Amino acid sequence: MSRGWVKAIAADPDLRSAIRIVGLVDVKPETALALAAEFDLQDAVIGSDLDAVLAQTTPDILFDVVVPAARRDVVATGFRHGCHVLSEKPMAASLAAGRELIRLADEAGKLHAVVQNRRFISGVRRIRRFVEEGGLGQLTGIHCDFFIGAHFGGFREEMDHVLLLDMAIHTFDAARFIADRKPLAVYCHEENPRGSWYRHGAAATAIFELSDDVTFTYRGSWCAEGANTSWESAWRVTGTRGTLLWDGAESFRANAVAGSEGLLREPVPLEIPEPADLRQTHGHASVIADFIAAIRSGKKPETASDDNINSLAMVFAAIESARTRQRVTI
């Protein structure tokens, strides 16, 4: 994932002029050396001791791209050295740990935000604008399907609740953003289907109750072979006026209905406008740009941890519901 972050910075002229990478830390220094060589980061200090490299380089920002179990200590170390911290998702391995990160950021007087890069893609921003402007009338439901047979190897295949914790949070956060509603409760069924190459929880089905009587449903699997959806899921967004369909890639369709007679009403196509601000549609680069703009302006970044914990709460409520087989309030 660190390669994706560095690539996003290298490919964006504004980020290249705003950011100088002064250090790379990895438990395997040879991995950091390879990254430095690939992106010609000749002046970057390389090490395996985060404290030591932060002391030597005194950076403004720490990019935290570690596995969830290591996040708390890495973020706390960054704050101790006076850094603002931008973390990979999920923001923490538990809600208690997430709350602690918010407290530590507040005590340090530094920003902490989370890379929810799916918010910053054109399709999600486009749907948010369409819903916000009333294109579907009053929002009633969001329904997402995610079915991909992903063979990662490594830590994911050993994780508990791998789909809910490591991937579904992208869709949960995007749905919360599009709906602009508060998550209230969830019922979730989690399983590890026959033939799964994951140790635990590669598939899940969840029904979320959002405020204002909006329902969000999620069906997903990371071990479903043969007919992959987009990584962004396949979406159906319903409202009192009509329905929007998005395949998670380039295909958008939205229809209202004509007339008021008959069993099935005739659909009428609706125009779906482009995102309001195209600068916010470049994934990782847009998240990083938003974070730097927040540091400079003193405003809160869009994915600040004290907001993102609401998406994390959706994940852990779904996990608790799956464990207890009960509806869980959020």
TrEMBL record:
Pfam families this protein is in?
GFO_IDH_MocA (PF01408), GFO_IDH_MocA_C3 (PF22725)
- SUPFAM superfamilies from the entry? Glyceraldehyde-3-phosphate dehydrogenase-like, C-terminal domain (SSF55347), NAD(P)-binding Rossmann-fold domains (SSF51735)
Which residues are in the GFO/IDH/MocA-like oxidoreductase domain?
124-244
- What keywords does the record list, in alphabetical order? Oxidoreductase
Q: Which domain of life is it from?
A: Bacteria
Alphabetical list of InterPro entries matching this protein? Gfo/Idh/MocA-like_OxRdtase_N, Gfo/Idh/MocA_oxidoreduct, GFO_IDH_MocA-like_dom, NAD(P)-bd_dom_sf
One example of the protein's molecular function in GO is:
oxidoreductase activity
Q: The Gfo/Idh/MocA-like oxidoreductase N-terminal domain covers which part of the protein?
A: 17-113
Q: Belongs to which family?
A: Belongs to the Gfo/Idh/MocA family.
What's the protein here called? Oxidoreductase
Tell me the classification of the organism that encodes this protein: Bacteria, Pseudomonadati, Pseudomonadota, Alphaproteobacteria, Hyphomicrobiales
